[in-house]
Design a protein that fits this description.
- With about 350 residues, this protein is α/β, with parallel strands linked by helices.
- It folds into two domains: about 40-145 and about 270-340, D-Maltodextrin-Binding Protein, domain 2; about 150-265, D-Maltodextrin-Binding Protein, domain 2.
- The chain is about 40% helix and about 20% strand.
- The protein has eleven helices and twelve strands.
- The protein has helices spanning about 40-45, 70-80, 100-105, 120-130, 165-170, 185-195, 210-220, 230-240, 285-300, 300-310, 320-340; strands spanning about 1-5, 55-60, 90-95, 115-120, 140-150, 150-155, 180, 205-210, 225-230, 245-250, 275-280, 315-320.
- It has a six-stranded mixed sheet, sandwiched between helices. Strands 3-2-4-11-5-12 form a six-stranded mixed sheet, with helices on both faces.
- It starts with a strand and ends with a helix.
- Belongs to the UPF0065 (bug) family.
- InterPro entries: BUG, Bug_dom1.
């Protein structure tokens, strides 16, 4: 896939499914952590004094303040504080390398249950893209809690009225129809759509943008002709009439979102931007169960429900054996997409 810049991994919703089974056995190992700032490391370890899960908790957001992972961490913090689920809970931001810096740090906190790591599709993708030493096998996945969906958009004055119109023009001359997106997840969606349409992703021009706002500007100023981006990032521009939504990237239609899915239009493109919580390895069964229940109790609060509305998240709860299988399938899927991109 031709691109004008090396994409920076950013973390950029299926019907509600709640499963309260606990996490099964996770195969993992302890590896050397990536280099991080001393202050950040101290923050994580300092919150781990005392092993009662309800006594203290550090939630690690593997990105700077203000992004999607940070939003999950802070809303989880608020839900736990407001409902007395944890006595003392703090958020530590640990950006770098698509989240793998934070992953590496948490991976060496073996046996310390007072830490949680926010992750998701972008973090899994980063471990593949950067071939990171730490992988999701080096932490204990607890739950997937929400999803966000990408939307395929074009400028309002675009000649492409439907997804089929856009795809046909793209097939006619792939390099002449530049795409953009706010991060590597969006590029994966574009790659998946290309494969569905019979287009070689290597022949596609993809302009990497630093976040959803920059991607929208690339569309509006004519630098790009189409974009894949998070629904929350684009909904205001769609409703204001500046962008035209051609497809929602979701398994099936979503209540409250009046955009036809790519699947409905004949393209099997369903990659979602899910968000997850993980813990260090080396925990016993009781600790894993207590942490999983803490996550489930947190996302059942009114505070979390309010956050879901503000962020346009859709609940999707996956735990236990289902989570293990889900993560294995997602890794295979994302790795194949990177191979198709020639990266």
């Amino acid at each position: 896939m031709t691109q004008t810049d090396t994409p920076a991994l950013t973390d950029n919703p299926a019907p509600p499914r709640r499963t309260r089974s606990v996490v099964g056995k996770i195969v993992g190992g302890v590896i050397a952590a990536a280099a991080i700032g001393t202050a950040a490391t101290g923050s994580v370890v300092s919150a781990s004094t005392g092993n009662e899960v309800g006594a203290s908790m550090t939630i690690v957001a593997p990105a700077a303040a203000g992004g999607g992972w940070d939003g999950v961490a802070r809303e989880l913090q608020q839900a736990q504080k407001a409902n007395g689920l944890v006595n003392n809970v703090q958020v530590v931001n640990m950006p770098g390398a698509g989240g793998t810096i934070a992953l590496g740090n948490v991976s060496v906190l073996e046996g310390q249950p007072n830490n949680m790591l926010v992750g998701g599709t972008g973090l899994l993708a980063a471990t593949i893209q950067f071939d990171s030493a730490a992988t999701l096998d080096d932490v204990t996945p607890l739950a997937v809690v929400v999803e966000e969906y990408d939307v395929i958009v074009v400028p309002a004055d675009s000649p492409y009225e439907t997804l089929d119109d856009l795809v046909q023009a793209w097939k006619d001359d792939p390099k002449a129809l530049p795409w953009t997106g706010g991060g590597s997840f969006d590029q994966l969606v574009v790659t998946d759509l290309a494969l569905s349409a019979g287009i070689d992703p290597v022949d596609t021009t993809y302009i990497s943008s630093d976040g959803g706002g920059e991607a929208i500007q690339a569309l509006l100023n004519g630098t790009a002709k189409a974009a894949a981006g998070g629904y929350p990032d684009n909904i205001d521009q769609i409703e204001a009439g500046r962008l035209r939504a051609l497809a929602l990237v979701a398994n099936e239609p979503i209540e409250g979102i009046d955009i036809p899915t790519a699947v409905e239009q004949g393209h099997d493109v369903t990659l979602t931007n899910w968000r997850s919580l993980s813990a260090p390895t080396g925990l016993d069964d009781d600790e894993r169960e207590a942490l999983t229940e803490l996550v489930l109790d947190s996302v059942a609060t009114p505070e979390w429900e309010g956050a879901m509305e503000r962020y346009h998240w859709t609940e999707r709860i996956i735990t236990g054996d289902d989570l293990d299988a889900f993560l294995r399938d997602e890794e295979v899927r994302i790795r194949e997409l990177y191979e198709e991109m020639g990266l």
